[in-house]
Write a structure and sequence with these properties.
By secondary structure, the chain is mostly helical. The chain has a domain at about 45-115 and about 125-165. Helices cover about 55% and strands about 5% of the residues. The chain has five helices and two strands, in the order H-H-H-H-E-E-H. It has helices spanning about 20-40, 55-75, 80-90, 100-115, 140-165, and strands at about 125-130, 135-140. It has a two-stranded antiparallel ribbon. A hairpin with a 4-residue loop joins strand 1 and strand 2 (about 135-140). The protein is globular, with a radius of gyration of 16 Å. The two termini are about 30 Å apart. The relative contact order is 0.19. The model has no long low-confidence stretch (mean pLDDT about 95).
């Protein structure tokens, strides 16, 4: 019965600070929904853009890339050349399968959860710069945005997949 409940209704996650539970719950919920949504999705439709919207492939790449970038900023680190190259390639069709892209997202969620578990809550209000312009945010702001942004793109992915399934 517990697995039928949304993640946030299953109780606290071990070793995750109380203030970061909602972020972790949202990331785990997104992972479960993406796995269910894409389980039977055909690779041949991965890069299709019905009515000009972003492709499922873009959303899967973007979900992974944004989490990586936001958690890098939360650590007060600059993006690497590899991260910038990944950003530039988001949305470009490639030979990866749905399974490959979902697995990359799952691995990124695992890394994000690990970072959340090791976050000192005393740092949550510390300022962090975002992007090349170093726009001001905080550690907590980056984490909350990662959850919100993930759920937003999950919704867009859901609609796009449903459009393609027709």
């Amino acid at each position: 019965m517990a697995e039928l409940r949304e993640v946030w209704l299953r109780g606290p996650l071990p070793e995750t600070p109380d203030l970061l539970q909602p972020v972790a719950h949202a990331l785990l919920q997104a992972r479960e929904e993406i796995q269910a949504l894409t389980a039977q999705f055909p690779n041949v439709r991965l890069w299709e853009r019905p009515s000009g919207v972003a492709s499922p492939g873009f959303h899967l790449q973007h979900l992974t890339g944004v989490l990586d970038r936001l958690y890098t900023y939360a650590r007060s680190e600059a993006l690497t050349e590899a991260q910038l190259a990944y950003l530039a390639a988001e949305g470009l069709p490639n030979e990866q399968s749905v399974t490959d892209l979902v697995e990359q997202f799952n691995q990124q969620v695992d890394r994000a959860l690990e970072q959340l578990r090791h976050t000192d809550v005393q740092t949550l209000t510390e300022t962090r710069g975002v992007g090349r312009a170093q726009l001001p945010s905080t550690v907590l702001g980056l984490y909350v945005h990662s959850a919100e942004h993930t759920m937003r793109h999950l919704g867009q992915l859901l609609v796009t997949v449903r459009m393609l399934e027709g």
